[in-house]
């Protein structure tokens, strides 16, 4: 679980609630919530297929619960496999594939064991990386869109509140509720966009880059395995993808 996402949301909402203080009841207005929340969901349904909209909850959960294999562990595993290949040949990896949890790595290794041409392995794995990037991009784009829709619906709610207020200027008792809608819809829209949707879109993009980096390391490692490259040379090549503080040689 990504504790940073949870802490960030709780901290942001908590500070807003602290600033409001004891008057938080004044910031709860069902008609304003209906305009912003309902309107944002409705516009999302207009802009994206129903299946994507239903899946947005699952995409949101990835900002909280998402596991990317540490780069150093991936490099270490590939070096371990390279040592097996150097000693017993590529077919010796047959017994290792079933124990590998990373599906991308297992798929690449199985193709290598099956005797696929190096170019074919590269093409297939790159195609899979492109599909992963496309899926991740769609999820991040949806949250970016939500971050745009929510403030826009807030502005629409503001206009509704102002129109209602101007139509009933002769009735002082109606000015307060109308003004409440006008101000709170903008507040809700800004809150949802800047605390939830846009930060989530940023987190999803970061997660995508992390996963694609790991997959690129795996691809290069499998190419080295097929070529029978020296494990030490392969390790130095793969460690170059990682930040200096994460580089640790298996041969030291």
UniProtKB/TrEMBL annotation:
Q: Tell me one GO biological process term.
A: bacterial-type flagellum-dependent swarming motility
Question: What residue intervals traverse the membrane?
Answer: 7-28, 34-61, 143-166, 178-198
Q: Which family does it belong to?
A: Belongs to the MotA family.
Q: Does the keyword Transmembrane helix apply?
A: yes
Q: Which InterPro entries match?
A: Flag_MotA_CS (IPR000540), MotA-like (IPR047055), MotA_ExbB_proton_chnl (IPR002898)
Name of protein: Chemotaxis protein MotA
Q: What is the lineage of its organism?
A: Bacteria, Pseudomonadati, Pseudomonadota, Candidatius Mariprofundia, Mariprofundales
Sorted keywords for this record are: Cell membrane, Flagellar rotation, Membrane, Transmembrane, Transmembrane helix, Transport
GO CC annotation, single: plasma membrane
Matches recorded under Pfam families: MotA_ExbB
Primary location: membrane
- Coiled-coil stretches: none
In this chain the MotA/TolQ/ExbB proton channel domain maps to 99-213
* Annotated localization: Cell membrane
Q: How does it sit in the membrane?
A: Multi-pass membrane protein
Q: Does the keyword DNA-binding apply?
A: no
